[in-house]
């Protein structure tokens, strides 16, 4: 049976996911949409040729009898109330990151889900669905490089707008490394620190860029993440794991090596959407398939909470320059290990 989905927030990623469900994925259909700009929601219905009702607000959409699962793709500060409303009605919900804008908000969702007694929430962290990260995890889990000791990462964007602030390097950018490295290493963070190299002249006056985020995990793995959002040359994601007996690197996205004009070159992507386009498809198809089978999997509300606690610690570390402990509540048995 086709899963009937309601989409809250028809902005960039909401439209993208609605298109995905309608044109690329199988087993689901969009039957309801809403946005605080109803005109835009209506336009999305027309543009994508959806057979969907436009609701006045997210709560009416969640309550609608024919909405079997909910996609929350509105602005971050609105996520918590919609996820809680979906849980209250026992409806599975895929929520784009962040799960909530505070760790306390994430914890309220964790508690509501635990009380419900069954997983309903998948958070939209897509990197664990990327083919390259999966291959890297497979190398680690099959003990081909021994126990991981050090991880070197880089997250580089060509440029950012003037509205991008120093803390967004954590909350919007490194948040993806925070999530994927926990998953990759099957570990939690113990402490974090942020150090600032010489600033690029291509960053706006209020932005510290680049930054280096240093993290230590509970098992003692040391991680460095270079975040450089005005690197000019491309969108570049690097990850190298140093293990006891070998080193494994995240594969580069495939591109045609070219010999031309006295150069031997490979193109580098410039758009983050291109880099993870397949991962978005796989994560959402995973949600649809799981819900149809009566089980929600993927990044959990607990993972959303862990990311929020770690991001808070990183933002504090940005301000103080200190090594900041990452203090998480005890993990409910509900989420396994
Ligand atoms: N996983 C990823 O890589 C990824 C990528 C992009 C965006 N996101 C996340 O997705 C969310 C949306 O990002 P975006 O780039 O699409 O933003 P956007 O501004 O393009 O779209 C958000 C939409 O939500 C609507 N909206 C806001 N409050 C609402 C409410 N109360 N009810 C209904 N609609 C409401 C806005 O009008 C807007 O159309 C953000 O949380 C962002 O962090 C995640």
From TrEMBL:
<keyword id="KW-0560">Oxidoreductase</keyword>
<dbReference type="InterPro" id="IPR023794">
    <property type="entry name" value="MI/DCI_dehydrogenase"/>
</dbReference>
<comment type="similarity">
    <text>Belongs to the Gfo/Idh/MocA family.</text>
</comment>
<dbReference type="Pfam" id="PF01408">
    <property type="entry name" value="GFO_IDH_MocA"/>
</dbReference>
<dbReference type="GO" id="GO:0050112">
    <property type="term" value="F:inositol 2-dehydrogenase (NAD+) activity"/>
</dbReference>
<feature type="domain" description="Gfo/Idh/MocA-like oxidoreductase C-terminal">
    <location>
        <begin position="137"/>
        <end position="325"/>
    </location>
</feature>
<comment type="subunit">
    <text>Homotetramer.</text>
</comment>
<comment type="function">
    <text>Involved in the oxidation of myo-inositol (MI) to 2-keto-myo-inositol (2KMI or 2-inosose).</text>
</comment>
<dbReference type="GO" id="GO:0000166">
    <property type="term" value="F:nucleotide binding"/>
</dbReference>
<dbReference type="InterPro" id="IPR036291">
    <property type="entry name" value="NAD(P)-bd_dom_sf"/>
</dbReference>
<keyword id="KW-0520">NAD</keyword>
<dbReference type="InterPro" id="IPR004104">
    <property type="entry name" value="Gfo/Idh/MocA-like_OxRdtase_C"/>
</dbReference>
<dbReference type="GO" id="GO:0019310">
    <property type="term" value="P:inositol catabolic process"/>
</dbReference>
<feature type="domain" description="Gfo/Idh/MocA-like oxidoreductase N-terminal">
    <location>
        <begin position="3"/>
        <end position="125"/>
    </location>
</feature>
<protein>
    <recommendedName>
        <fullName>Inositol 2-dehydrogenase</fullName>
        <ecNumber>1.1.1.18</ecNumber>
    </recommendedName>
</protein>
<dbReference type="InterPro" id="IPR000683">
    <property type="entry name" value="Gfo/Idh/MocA-like_OxRdtase_N"/>
</dbReference>
<dbReference type="Pfam" id="PF02894">
    <property type="entry name" value="GFO_IDH_MocA_C"/>
</dbReference>
<dbReference type="InterPro" id="IPR050424">
    <property type="entry name" value="Gfo-Idh-MocA_inositol_DH"/>
</dbReference>
